[in-house]
Each structure stands twice: as structure tokens, then as C-alpha cells.
Amino acid sequence: MRKEKLEELRDYINELKTIRVINSLDNPTFLSIQKAYYKLNNGKVIPREKLVKNGTDGSAAIVLPVTVDNNTILVVQPRVNTKETVGIELPAGYIEPSEEPLSAAIRELTEETGYIPEKMHLLDSYYQDQGCMSAYNYSYLALDCKKVKDQQLDKYEFIKYFECKYEEVLELVELGYIKDINSKYTIEKSKKYFKI
Q1: Residue 38, domain member (yes or no)
Q2: 87: domain range?
Q3: Is the pLDDT of residue 196 over 70?
């Protein structure tokens, strides 16, 4: 990893790191738990809980963007429930009701980075955590991305985007900077498109 890129990334991590939890939310606004009994074909009934995100199943699109200059784009953002409190990830976001996964991928990439891709390839689709939710995720490779606008972040989104070489992305995984499974899996699935 180039020294100047690692320093830039560490500056972003430091800026977005949680330094204190002020208090807890009395009325959560994003996550809820749906409780139900499920009757199986064999006649048995099992109790289960399902995590619901913002009233939806939480399906998401994850994007590995490659610019026209052959750099990749990562995002750095607060992930307050992790021990690091900051995540280095691929651009990603929830698929809106009635939105196609490909449209969500392009929308999230553009909102989080301001880049728009020329070509998109579906790498894979998969359940995120079958034990407690029904979220179904889609991993994409976005090629020939061009910067066309500023970030369009929601009120409580604080995202820095970070350009580096694809080989440096692989190195960040090995060094333990990239920890989330959606990003790691998408990066792994993208390897067949790159000559390493």
C-alpha cells in the first residue's frame, strides 16, 4: 500500500471514529423485530424472530467501482456497532421497494461517490443472514466509472470516498482494514475480472 494512500485512509478513519455514545434511542426509527410462529409442513410449529430494516427486508446492492483511470473506489463511514466504529467498505445501500437491484446499485454508487458507471456486471446474489432476516443482496462490478456530480448523502450519512488501485484493495483486505463480509465477498468474486 502506498504510504500516502494509507495516511489518507487513516485520516478518514480518525475523522469518522466514534468517541462517545451520548444516550440510547427511546424509540428506534430504523430497526424492528417481527415475531411470529411458523407452521411447518410436518405439522411442527416453531417461533422465530426476523429483523426488519426501515420497514423492508433489508436487501441491498454492493458495488465494486472501477474508474476510467483503473482505480477502485472504497467508502469510509461510521459503523458505530463495530469495535473499530468505522468501516472501510464498497459503496452499497438498500434496495427501495419496487426498485430493481441494478438501479439501486447505480443509485447508491452515485449518491455515495458522485460516480456513474458505463458498464455493470452482476457478480452474485445471496442471502445476508438467513437466521434472522430475509435480506437478499446483489454484488456488482461497475466499470468505467466517471465522476459526474457531488455526493448526495442523507442527513445522517457521513461518507468519505477513497480511490486506490485494485491491488491495494486486496492488500487492505489482507491487512484487516476491510472487514465486512459483503465487501470481502464482492471483492473475492471480482478477482476473475482482473489480471493479478
Answers
A1: no
A2: 3-18+56-193
A3: no
**pLDDT tops 80 at residue 5:** yes
Report yes or no on 139 lying in a domain.
Answer: yes
State the DSSP string of the chain: --HHHHHHHHHHHHHH---------SS-SSEEEEEEEEE-TTS-EEEEEEEEETTB---EEEEEEEETTSEEEEEEEEETTSSSEEEEE--EEEPPTT--HHHHHHHHHHHHHSEE-SEEEEEEEEES-TTT---EEEEEEEEEEEE-S-----TT---EEEEEEHHHHHHHHHTTS---HHHHHHHHHHGGGS--
- Domain assignment present for residue 156? The answer is yes
Q: Which amino acid is at 91?
A: P
Q: What's the total number of domains in the chain?
A: 1
What's residue 104's pLDDT?
98
